[in-house]
Structure prediction request, 506 residues.
Amino acid sequence: MKRSASKNAQPTTRSHLFQSRGWSLRWKFPLLLAVLLLFTVGVLSTLVLIGIQSNQKNQIENTLKRQSEIVGLTIRQEYLASNPSDPESFMKLRATELAGQLGISSNMRIVLYDAKGQLVGDSLPLAPQAHVEQALAYALKGQIAYITAGSSVIYLSPIQGPNGLLGVAQLHLSIAEQQAFYQDIVHLLLWIGLSVLMISFIVGWLYIRKQTTDIERLTQETISIAQGQYPVAQTTLFTRKDELGQLGEGIVQMGHMIAQSMNDLENEKQQLEQAVTKLTALEQLQKAFIGNISHELKTPITSIQAYADLLHMYGDDPSLVQEASESIAKETKRLIELIEDSIRLSLLEKYDFELQLHTVQLDELLQDVAERTRGKASTSGIDLQVQTVSVNMITDPKHLMHILLNLLDNAVKYNDRKHGWIQLSNTLDDHKTIIRIANSGAIIPEDQWDNVFEPYATLSSDRARTGSGTGLGLPLARRLTERLQGQLYIKQSNPSGTVFILELPL
Prediction:
């Protein structure tokens, strides 16, 4: 990502706060995931094994119960069919035969006991005998009992006759297959758990690695911003749309905002420096203005004082009285104009007067302004030409008249006294009217185009006043133009003429 470094940014001494400490999240998260998976697989495996054990137990119990019922029913039927005599004698005579038959039919080892607990029949007489004394004691009391011995379950069930207990049937059921199945399931769950654990760990590690990589990018971005290196282009750290993506976008936006704030501060600093420079220049201009205004005031007052003294000494000379009266009137008018322009400029800069808006026929107003100036222009040998188009606009006619009079007066004062000319025209452009005042006066250097509109500014030597102007006409004109939401500027100043442009909204 492109970056910009702040000019005033200093390398941060706190970047060590961003350094990783301890285990990285890249390992913590996968290990936590592995522990959770191990716990889950362990719980599920335990539940599955418990379920298998419970199911096998129920199946074994049901099988043994069903076979014991068949054995008991068979023995009772044989007992009843043989003219019941003494149950003990019946069991001694028939137990061995019945045990063999039942063992073949049930595919189990059948051991028969009489009502006293004596062994009377065994389908596998050569097989070793199990120690079932305690379980046999329960069975003789009419209760079912069973015990697990290795890979066999020994089930003892009482055999009830019509007149009481005939004996006890002992059934041997091999559970080797069930135990083998259970062990296979245990091994299968173990392998499945390990496989799932390894695969999940790898997948989790890869996924977390992607997340931590993005987090590291976010961290690096914050470090860069802390060091004063801000993102330049409006780009994102990554294209993801989740919370990290939103965080990345937020960090980039924060970087842009900080960079913008720093730029704004820098611009404000430069503006303040320019303001200080401008204030210094204005102070110099003000000092020059005081000198100029003092001279402007002193000159007509001195002239008035001189003519007043002459009138006092030679008041009986008609020609002197006429000349003195005209001069005193001229200088008095100049003093009044100077004072009025100074007051008007000061008031415009301090107060916001309400505009008196009216509908104005601009071409008629321009003709009126030209007629007011034409006499002064003719006296100075200047040709004034007017070309207007009909335009209706809403503006303050008093302010507009003052602007135009100042501009034309300025064009007369600083014009060529032998072959001078002034052209006043207007055009309509979109939603504004453009008034053009061109004259054949001296060239204004381009670097002075804005300065001529500043209060207290003095003109260069090639622009020195030859008339009786106050030097405040153009600043007044621009301030009034801004009040009318328009623009006043110099468009050109070269040997072909100097052109002032006045743009006003309709």
Remarks:
- The longest strand covers residues 164-174.
- The two ends are 49 Å apart (CA to CA).
- Residues 243-313 form the longest helix (71 residues).
- The chain is about 55% helix and 20% strand.
